[in-house]
Amino acid sequence: MGAPRNWTRGTAMAALLALAAAWAGPTAAHVGHGTLGSGNFIDGFLHPVTGLDHLVAMVAVGLWGAQLRAPAIWLLPITFPMVMAVGGFLGLIGVPIPGVDAGVALSGLVLGMCVAFVVRPAALWIPAVIVGVFGLLHGHAHGTAMPMSGSPVAFGTGFVVATGLLHLAGILIGLLVRWPWGAWVVRASGAVIALTACVSLFAMIGRAT
Amino acid sequence: MSQKIGWLALLALLALPAPAWSHELISRHGAFLGPALHIFSEVDHLAAFAVVGLLAGQNTARVRTAGLAAFAAALVLALLAAQGLADAQAFDAVEPLLSAGSMLVIGVLVAIDWRLQVWQIVLTAAAVGLVHGMANGLAIAATPQLGLSILGAVIAACLIAAIGTLLSTGLQGPRVRIAVRVLGSWVAALGLMLIGLALRG
């Protein structure tokens, strides 16, 4: 029975590759249509990856999910993009959320601390609400950054995919918790994330004053 | 069963060299390839058709077949109906909203792994087929070889839906099924943002 199962798995992989390749076409097609930063897939993809606040917070979501284990480990990456999109939607139609930048910076600090101290809330809805609120803020930041020139669709696809892949990276690192030394590596990662966010917060306060 | 999957995999492989050509170039590719390439080169068409396939693949064989059949039938019907449509502007105005709305609804259904009745999947899949069939039908309304253009659009759309179906039927383990649900949540997120874009104008 093993062979057909592998065959199916292989086929699914081929389908995934085909789908990814099909996506690469339209998303890259708009490169060069305008000046740099005109809003294509790469710009959208780079927004969460190069924005340090986004990067560390998304990895922290994955790490915390892995620490909390099932069902949080898969519930967070499934619900997060949708909650983030609600924030992006509000940002796009021009509904202001006060303190988005501070909130985004704060998200890295809070989530990093949760990972560093292995905070395990009693009920699943508590981390869901915490992550959800931060997701809303991150989405709003992406939404207001969304360019109207170039291809906003490709830009949106880029930042959704990048966010998802950052969660995945966090979850993969977080899988180390099954070993005692790995659990410490994950906690240390959380501490590094919290520190990074702190630096970013102080920089923000410095600019404001 | 595995033979059937093999054929589908072959179709999936044929989709691999999906090109990165933009509209101006596509119009030079002729009546058949032009519309087909257009579908592969627009993210909203791609995402909508792929997620219909993902949804179909999450459900039982009977529901899956009904959904895919309804999708293909509605697509062909709308492509033909668009040729007789006098006022295209009215549809063009609401098309982005309808298209994004269908992505949101189906993306959420995939994300929450909702098991559908036959009539439910027929309705949702047919709605996507209708909206995108109308949009593409209007776009090719002026072409001389209409039959070929419709054929190209239908084959491309069904190919993408088939790849989506393969993905979610092929990934059967409890953990990897979650990957399909995550993909659904990505499409839902994209749909919601496209609604925002459409409203912003």
Task: Please write out the topology.
The complex is a heterodimer of chains A (209) and B (201).
Chain A: H1 2-29, H2 41-50, H3 52-68, H4 72-93, H5 100-116, H6 125-145, H7 152-174, H8 180-208
Chain B: H1 2-14, H2 23-26, H3 30-41, H4 43-58, H5 61-83, H6 88-111, H7 118-139, H8 146-170, H9 177-200
Helix pairs in contact in B: 1-8, 3-8, 4-5, 4-6, 4-7, 4-8, 4-9, 5-7, 5-8, 6-7, 6-9
Main attributes?
heterodimer, A: 209 residues, mainly alpha, 0% strand, B: 201 residues, 9 helices
In brief:
Chain A has helices at 2-29, 41-50, 52-68, 72-93, 100-116, 125-145, 152-174, 180-208. With 209 residues, chain A is mostly helical. The termini of chain A are far apart.
Report on the architecture of this protein:
By secondary structure, chain A is mostly helical. Chain A has one domain. Chain A has helices at 2-29, 41-50, 52-68, 72-93, 100-116, 125-145, 152-174, 180-208. In chain A, helix 2 (41-50) crosses helix 3. In chain A, 48% of the residues are buried. The model of chain A is unreliable at 1-5 and 25-38 (pLDDT under 50). The N and C termini of chain B lie far apart (47 Å). Chain B has one domain (19-200). Chain B contains 9 helices and no strands. The radius of gyration of chain B is 16 Å and the shape is globular. Chain B is mostly helical and 201 residues long. Chains A and B meet through helix 1, helix 4 and helix 7 of A and helix 1, helix 4, helix 6, helix 8 and helix 9 of B.
